[in-house]
Design a protein that fits this description.
4 helices; mainly alpha; elongated
Length: 78
């Protein structure tokens, strides 16, 4: 994947916190920011958050939402 340089201005305390976080998680601030920006919704697809988009398609088409809820209630005895 091709990369491009981007300059960001953030306050010092935020930068220090980002450095500590990236060091603890053995990653770079560039990678952290890149992941967050990659998760932004496209202008065309704004009804779903990235978290919801990742879940789309996990439930088979043959199962209704009601059946799924019933199965969860049985499993967790709700």
């Amino acid at each position: 994947m091709a990369s491009t340089k981007l300059t960001l201005l953030i306050d010092r305390s935020t930068a220090a916190r980002a450095k500590r976080y990236s060091k603890r998680h053995k990653t770079s601030i560039s990678r952290l920011v890149g992941r967050m920006l990659a998760d932004l919704p496209d202008a065309v697809d704004t009804d779903m958050t990235p978290s919801v988009r990742r879940l789309v398609g996990l439930l088979p088409d043959t199962i209704s939402i009601g059946e799924h809820r019933h199965a969860l209630r049985q499993k967790y005895r709700l």
